[in-house]
């Protein structure tokens, strides 16, 4: 501030003293504005209207003492105050300073002459006091903000001493680990670290203390007070003194336990999907083999008749093929490529229909109890597959109760809302029909629960379990757009809960099946069979040839097109494998249809029609038959398509 702008309020009731002080400023060449007040009330009136840069006050005034108008500490006031008195007294000086005076002056001719320098010195000291005050206010505000950020932070924050002790922790970290503030400060971070993570974390911390690095970030696990495991991302930074020694360490802790849980679910889902694709491929190849076994078994059965001594052997081969076909259906169920025949069904009816069979499966030493919802529980599902789910779960429960127990099946209706999805980590909003299967068996630990849906994982003895039962259940439920949940603990039994979307559409009447046994199977038409498996080609030629058809064979998509071009006028129907080398059955048929739009096709595949349509391989309305197909079933389907062509 410019010296010319200085304003001095002189509070002095003796005119001679006031005049002497004014002359001292004039003689010193100081251009200041001096306002004189003779009483304490005048002082208060003037300062209320326009505070001066500094006030010089006599201690004793006619209407009171100057100390009564001061504030302490001095820098908390609006301006500095110098107190004057006519006699020197240590007690009075202390009183003045304690009351808030910046300095204490004993009146004399010399002090009046020195007053300009005294005022300059006081103003400089006042400026320093104000600067310190502003700095302290800034530091205090910063401290308040820091404490607010620290205490109210959404992530865990801590100050840690070089000897691993918690110096300060915020509430988020306490809540994360389940300890109180006092409990945290009485221990060290390494004691709360998950044992397997301690060694690498100590190595990083030692490097930090040695000065090799100033900070690091890493994933680590802590053990909560209740024994639970918390996954965190820890970011650590060192705060060093001027000599580079560690003063303390600051650390942040982000809880990623839920993220780890979701990552585990994703990895599990990806693994299941990969194994499912493998299972689907294996099942597809097995279906080709089984189709050949079915075909030649049927041919042998017709040749030997019912009275032949070889008939029993052939029937055994056929029955083994049936069991193998069931295995492929299980693999396809796991891979979610199983043939589905969904329709509106009442879940309660499925449970009641299978109840007697379940009783035989679980044995007499296990009691079966069913609690069925009174109202119909309609789902759009393949009833046979849902029955298979119940059978697998019942078998699993039986094996968990070798000494007997209780198996409880319950059905009901539940709405999955946001809270359910957040709590369970799965599901989609909507109304679901649920079925729970509970046993009183030996239960499972957390590690086993994580793996129960993995294919070929089993806790049973070698030779007593395939490890596919629950994997198949998982595949079927996923294929029905449902969700599963399992709750279990050692010696506490197990409960499986299955949620399937409730069906809201109109009820579909049971289909009236046409009696195709009345169809004549013989024919004289020409059939082009396109199949890359030579065994199936030979089988088709044998079956259809015996029925009177002329059969033309092709071993891939391009060969099928060439064979059709050469026999375009005589080919009445094409039996086309969907998946073939060089050109797929779908692509080959599109080329053939350009040559002859009226030609009929019967696609053959190991996958279900709905899956083929979803992949865009099969168009709606096109005919498809699923491997492994029995010889007479193939002959009937061919005859049906040809007869419909003649009718149109």
Q: CATH superfamily name of the largest domain?
A: Histidine kinase-like ATPase, C-terminal domain
**Global Rg:** 47 Å
Task: Give helix % range.
Answer: 40-55%
Strand tally, please? 24
End-to-end C-alpha gap: 109 Å
Strand proportion, as a percent range, falls in: 15-25%
Specify the CATH class of the largest domain: Alpha Beta
CATH topology of the largest domain: Heat Shock Protein 90
Query: In this structure, how is the largest beta sheet organized?
Result: 5 strands, parallel
Unreliable residue stretches: 508-519
Structural category is alpha/beta
Spatial order of the strands in the main sheet? 2-1-3-6-7
Q: Enumerate how many helices there are, as a single number.
A: 21
Number of domains: 5
Mean pLDDT: 82
Per CATH, which architecture of the largest domain? 2-Layer Sandwich
Shape: elongated
What does this molecule look like?
The protein is an alpha/beta fold and 648 residues long. The protein folds into five domains: 3-134, Response regulator (Rossmann fold), CATH 3.40.50; 153-255, 2-Layer Sandwich (Beta-Lactamase); 262-334, Signal transduction histidine kinase, dimerisation/phosphotransfer (DHp) domain (Helix Hairpins, Orthogonal Bundle), CATH 1.10.287.130; 343-501, 2-Layer Sandwich (Heat Shock Protein 90), CATH 3.30.565; 518-647, Rossmann fold. The protein contains 21 helices and 24 strands. The protein has a five-stranded parallel β-sheet with strand order 2-1-3-6-7, sandwiched between helices. A five-stranded antiparallel β-sheet has the order 9-8-12-11-10, sandwiched between helices. A hairpin with a 5-residue loop joins β11 (229-240) and β12 (246-255). The longest helix is centred in the middle third of the chain and has 48 residues, at 257-304. It is elongated, with a radius of gyration of 47 Å. Residues 508-519 have low confidence and may be disordered.
